[in-house]
Amino acid sequence: MLDTAPAVKRTPGRRSPGRARSLRRPRFGPYLLIAPTVIVIALLMFWPMVQIGIMSFQKVGNRQLRGEPAESVGTENFKTIFDDPFFWQTLRHTVLFAVVAVSLTMVVGTLIGLLLNKLGTKMSNFVAGGVMVAWATPPVTAAIIFTWLFGTTGGVVNWTLDLLPDFLVGSGWLDYNWFAKPLSTYTVLTVCVVWQACPFVAVSVLAGLKSVPSELYEAARVDGSGPWRTFWSITYPMLKPIFLVLLVMSIIWDFKVFTQLFVMSGMANRDAFNLSLYAYSEAFGSLNPKLGMGSAIALVLTMILLVVTALYVRVMVRQGETR
Amino acid sequence: MKRSLLRRAALNGTGLLVFVFAVFPVFWMVSTAFKPNTEIFSTTPKPFPSHPTLAHFDLVLNGGIAEVSFWEYFRNSAVLALVTVVVSSLFALLAATAVARFRFRFRTTFLVMLLVVQMVPLEALVIPLFLDLKKADMLNTLPGLAVVYIGFAVPFAIWMLRGFVAAVPRELEEAAAIDGAGPVRTFFKVMLPLVAPGLVATSIFSFITAWNEFIFAYTFLEDQDKYTLPIMLQFFFGRSGNAWGPIMAASTLLTIPVIAFFLLVQRRMVSGLTAGAVKG
């Protein structure tokens, strides 16, 4: 499973340059090889990023879409945003959702990973295969399935909750509408996103566990260490690099969640917006598109993620991934 | 002895429970797709359809939803995914070779750049790319969308492929060079066959990226006959709120190919994403 990892470490870095030249390749060879990628990334990622920066200080609307030059408005877009309580509400939704979803993903994913490691080979593969199905489901389908599961008419979740004893979950579940309020909408969204995201954590943790020498666990057992203590004194320190990468990736994924929320609650339901949806709806949501405003909101989101990305890159560089 | 047996049973039981929770939503989707309407909206839902029907699939496949035949959308999605796979794999193979085989200035910069762009929120890029494609007259076209997908698929593909390229023993290439093969011939006769498994794995990843993508297709495509499957699904879902039978049938048709591919390569995907984080 980890076959690429040792190979990466063996990159021919410390060989003498003479040997590399013995392949008689032109010296500009590597630059030619990366050129297509660099061009594609520059055109499709870096330049658009710069454009977001520029447009967030401009007014870009219908007239600009017809070809008129954009007007500069200084920091007006940002002033409008930061003065608007609605922006802070979407930011709150974004952050709260990320905190809850990331924590749940990490905890549940790790538990499943530990379980997979404890199971016999056949059972482990069987369960891992099942978990993988959740990961593979396209986000649009996942969102639609969960809307159906939590639906008002014929939804299996409401039906189950209604069957459960009233003192446990209360009553009146049968016609409960999960998508009427932001909090319950986000509950469904969290379940959906965590369901899709924990397999990745589980499988990565399992891969990591396989690399921990079993002697460590035997020693811990001999010393009478319980499962809780064993996890925190052996598993966690050994897998810390993986946990860090998984944590950063989960934060980034959950911060910018769009498709699922878009499908579940839609553009009309502004109360449940997060930052991505807010930016999108400003830019494309009405007949009077405000692409400058949308860019400004997108820039805020990008800036937040940039901090997390910087952390991620630091971890990867430290682990020698870019050698 | 008895205790360990009990422990084993408890573990396996938990494992089964996890399995059931993990596959239940997808199972429910497929099950709903085969149920007649009376069972779908029954007050006591049953796990399996008592009277399985193909009516919903029939409706979906024969243009009963959204006027255009399902196969039209299927073709759009498949062509897009195929183009993305071929071009991004080619670009990725070239760049992966450069990164795994050469030391050059800006190599580390290039690798860090690959990491950074994988983290860029695509949801933010949709605004400027919309304007760029509009300027290039490629809005509302599948090629325009393909270009965007290639850009998104390439960085991860390189990240995954470089491990496979680095794993090919350099001596093989040197031997070929000594035998008089030029770089191009060495590449096709030695390198390509050996990295083929890696290429398959990255291809399937790129395929899934393009197949599942939603926000760009939703924003860029205007004509209904150009829609990809996810957009068709969302369109249909938005228009006919609770026609759950056909919606679930369409979802099933969209999902099954991805799950099949995914199960084929999931091992590679994990090692690609967290490569090295786990080296022991």
TrEMBL record, chain A:
Residues 1-22 are annotated as: Disordered. Residues 91-312 form the ABC transmembrane type-1 domain. The keyword Zinc does not apply. Keywords: Cell membrane, Membrane, Transmembrane, Transmembrane helix, Transport. Residues 11-22 have a biased composition (Basic residues). PROSITE patterns: ABC_TM1. InterPro entries: MetI-like, MetI-like_sf, UgpAE/MalFG_permease. It is found in: Cell membrane. Its main location: membrane. One of its GO terms (cellular component) is plasma membrane. Gene3D superfamilies: MetI-like (1.10.3720.10). It holds the Pfam family BPD_transp_1. The keyword Transmembrane applies. GO terms for biological process: transmembrane transport. It is a multi-pass membrane protein. The chain crosses the membrane at residues 28-47, 95-116, 128-150, 183-209, 230-253, 291-313. Belongs to the binding-protein-dependent transport system permease family. This is ABC transporter permease subunit. It comes from Actinomadura litoris.
